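Please fill in the sequence for the structure shown.

STRUCTURE ENCODING:
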């Protein structure tokens, strides 16, 4: 400090003042000016330093959230939120629709594709909210601050992409909640933790637990229906006729012999029929045998997504083909168009035999967890008709949607997907 003061005094002394401008009585004024300048400059430095120390770090845990709340740094009752980087889906699941006052640009530009996102099909007005950033977390502080009533909390995907969350809080003064973008198969613990974190922030902890229990129940039943040891119990519980052991054995053998492939999988946009995914969640949930296997890698980071050579699909010649309808966003270049017009794909046995089935978009701006469940029930119905004979996949879809997004929106989704969702395709007349 002494060194700094001496330096400042030396700089002041370098000024040359004319004698007729200052007289002896002005010396006190000069001294006061120097001291005030020093205190102002150094004092502001101290304020900035304290501010730096108090800038909230991104909130990743409930303990961190409660600590900030106890210090009055995060409101106890959040009334306004901004959802960035695909987190809007989770906010809707948790019943936070009325709290959302802004979204990122992806929700706006895909508003005409309600078939791709159940949460927008159920709540289309969300796509009309002010935009405060671009997709994938590229938030814009100036747009947030320009809102009539800025959000009290930013819910942001914890992917490492987009605007730095620390700088975002520094620029806006708004705390950032970072949510892991994982799924209901790979990364399930992190998925649950993210739901609980948002639930705690929005005072919706019970709803978060209800959602987690819902996924647990659905996944458990799917696995029971596709596991030999549990099939007798399932059929008894549903008051269905109990199958013989020989029939069960036959079903299990069919399970192990039927090969499947899914094409048209979206990742960073829509793709054609050669776009697929190892460890495709609906396949994993019902034990389907995919040529791509079940690699336990992270779907969010893209290391499960693969673009295959057409020759590889022809070489595999799977018994049953599934088409993820996220591909329809490509129009005439979609996987559906390819299956109709491409001579190579039409030579596949599954296409000739009519063993091609459609699925709801499994991913569209991160994972549609609701669609994962819906698709799993449909795949189960196709691969194991005896175990799923009591299930109507479309009715089951509406049960899932009503619980997660608040409305039974299957018909609305299907209308946006050319009325082809959860169907068996036939190309005989093409």
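FILLED IN BY: designer on duty
SEQUENCE:
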């Amino acid at each position: 400090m002494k060194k700094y003061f001496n330096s400042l005094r030396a700089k002041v002394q370098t000024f040359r003042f004319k004698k007729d401008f200052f007289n002896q009585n002005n010396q006190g004024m000069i001294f006061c000016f120097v001291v005030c300048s020093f205190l102002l400059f150094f004092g502001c430095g101290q304020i900035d330093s304290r501010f730096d120390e108090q800038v909230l770090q991104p909130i990743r845990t409930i303990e961190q959230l409660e600590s900030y709340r106890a210090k009055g740094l995060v409101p106890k009752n959040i009334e306004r939120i901004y959802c960035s980087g695909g987190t809007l889906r989770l906010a809707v699941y948790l019943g936070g629709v009325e709290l959302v006052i802004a979204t990122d640009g992806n929700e706006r530009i895909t508003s005409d594709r309600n078939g791709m996102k159940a949460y927008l099909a159920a709540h289309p007005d969300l796509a009309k909210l002010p935009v405060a950033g671009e997709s994938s977390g590229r938030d814009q502080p100036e747009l947030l601050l320009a809102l009539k009533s800025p959000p009290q909390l930013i819910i942001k995907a914890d992917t490492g992409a987009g605007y730095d969350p620390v700088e975002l809080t520094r620029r806006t003064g708004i705390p950032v909640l970072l949510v892991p973008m994982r799924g209901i198969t790979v990364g399930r613990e992190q998925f649950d933790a993210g739901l609980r974190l948002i639930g705690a922030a929005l005072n919706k902890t019970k709803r978060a637990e209800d959602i987690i229990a819902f996924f647990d129940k659905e996944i458990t039943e799917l696995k029971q229906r596709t596991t030999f040891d549990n099939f007798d119990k399932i059929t008894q519980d549903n008051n269905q006729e109990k199958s013989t052991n020989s029939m069960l054995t036959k079903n299990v053998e069919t399970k192990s012999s039927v090969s499947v492939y899914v094409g048209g999988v979206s990742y960073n946009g829509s793709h054609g029929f050669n776009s697929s995914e190892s460890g495709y969640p609906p396949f994993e949930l019902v034990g389907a045998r995919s040529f791509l296997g079940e690699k336990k890698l992270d779907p969010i980071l893209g290391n499960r997504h693969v673009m295959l050579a057409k020759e590889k699909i022809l070489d595999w010649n799977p018994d049953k083909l599934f088409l993820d309808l996220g591909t329809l966003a490509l129009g005439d270049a979609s996987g559906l168009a390819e299956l109709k017009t491409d001579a190579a794909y039409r030579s596949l046995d599954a296409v000739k035999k009519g063993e091609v089935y459609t699925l709801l978009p499994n991913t569209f701006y991160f994972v549609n967890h609701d669609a994962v469940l819906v698709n799993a029930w449909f795949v189960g119905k196709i691969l194991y008709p005896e175990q799923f004979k009591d299930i109507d996949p479309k009715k089951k879809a509406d049960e899932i949607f009503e619980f997660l997004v608040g409305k039974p929106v299957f018909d609305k989704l299907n209308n946006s997907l050319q009325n082809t969702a959860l169907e068996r395709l036939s190309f005989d007349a093409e």
